[in-house]
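User: Quick sanity check before I run a bigger batch. Here is a single chain. Can you write out its predicted 3D structure?
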Amino acid sequence: MTLSLTELAACFEGVIPSILCTVGADGTPNISYLSHVTRLDDEHVGLSDQFFSKTARNIRENPRAALLVVNPHDGAQYRLDLQYCETVGSGPVFERMAADLRATSAQVGMTDVMRLRGVAIHRVLGLRAVRSPLAAAPPEAWRGSALPRMAAVVDAFADRTELGEIVDAALDALEAAFRHGATMILLHDPARDCFVTLGSRGYGRTGIGADVLPGEGLIGLSGKEGRAIRVSDASRLRRFGAAVEASSEQENRTRSVALPSLPGAMSQIALPMATQGRIRGVLFLESPKRLAFSAEDEAALALIARQLAAAIALSEADAAEAAPDAPIPRRPSEVASPHIRVVHHAHDDSVFIEHDYLIKGVPGRILIHMLEAFLSAGQVDFSNREIRTDRALRLPGLKDNLETRLLLLRRRLEDKNAPIRLLRLSRGRIRLHVAGYPIVISDRKSGAQ
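Assistant: Done. Predicted structure follows.
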C-alpha cells in the first residue's frame, strides 16, 4: 500500500520528537532530535533550523537525510527519505513554524529566548512504514465528524440576546458536544488591554475576573496574534498560571484573580473570537487526554469562536440601544443593618467588600458610582444609556464594552457571595440590590487607604 504524508498528519503534532539522521562527507552519521517538523504539502516537510553545528555541516556537505516520525496514537513509525531544498527565513512557511515555536515558548516562559532562525525545506523522496517487533496500539474510536457538533454549539447560543445567556449557552453546549474537560471564555478589555474571564466550565472554581495579558501563555498569544494555537501534548510544558495558588488572601494581596487550571492537562487549544476585524476575546479549551483536539476539531472550534464573537458584538449593540427614553423609576433607599464596608482605591478603581478583593478597573468604578447614587438619591435602577452617558464614569470611548463590564461585575459579586448584587431587569436595564447599608470609603474623597 502506498502511503502519503496526509495519512501521517498525527505524526507532525509534536507529541513525540522526530529523529533526523544526516551523514557527513566522510560517511560518519549523526542523529538529532527535532521537536518541530511540519508537513507543508504531500511532497515537502519543514524542519526547524535550530540544528547543532554538526547537523548543519552534514546537510551542506550531503543534502540527503532520513527522518523517523512516530504516530502518537498507536506508536507506528515511518521513515522519510529527504532531499534538502532550501532554508527560508521569511514568508508563509516561516511564519507558520515561527508561530508554533512561539506557542511552545510561551508555555515554558521563554518567549524571548526561543526564536526560529529558519525553516529547512526538504523534499520527501520516499516514505515507508518501519516494522516493529511489537503490535501497534489499537486506535481510539472515531468520535464522528466535528460538523454536527459545531452546529449543535452554534444553535445553542444563536437565538440568545443577553450576553450572560450567550456565554453560558456556549459553555454548556461546548461541554456537551466535545466532552473535552474544561473551557473558558475571555473577552478583551480595551481599557486595560487584557483578556478577562467571563465564564468557565470544568474547573474547581470559576476564575471569573482572571485576566491574561496579550502574548502571555497560549491564551494571550492567540489573542495577540489572532490565530488558533493547538498543543497536543503539554506534558513537557508549564501551563501558564498553574503555579499560582488561588485564595482570597492571594486576591487581596495582588488585587487580581488567578486563572483556573485543569490538573494534568495534556491538550490545549486557544482560538481568537474575532469579528469585523476586531479581536473580541479568546475561547480556550483543554483536556487531560493527549491529542484531544484534531485538525478538524480546530476548524470547527474556530468557526464557533467567530460566531460567538458576532453574537457578543450584536448583544452589546442591542443593549446599548435598548434603554427607554422615559425616566427610570427610582426607589427610596432604606437604611438597613448590617452595615457593609466598601473600600475603593481610586488609582486603579479596585474595590474591596468586607476586606475581600472584588474587582478593579472600569467595573469597579461603575459599582462605586451605583452605590453613591443609591446613598445620595436612593437610586436602585440603572440603564445602560444612563451609565454610558455619565461623564463622571470616564468610560473609554464608543467601544466601551459596557455590557461585558456589567456582566463581569455581576458575576464577580455572585462568585464572592457578596451582600451586593446586580439584577438584570430587561435588555439594557439593571437593578442594584443591597442586603444592608453600604459604607463607602474612597481615597478619591477622603484620603483613606
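The chain has three domains: 5-130, 146-321, 339-442.

User: Great, the batch can go ahead then.
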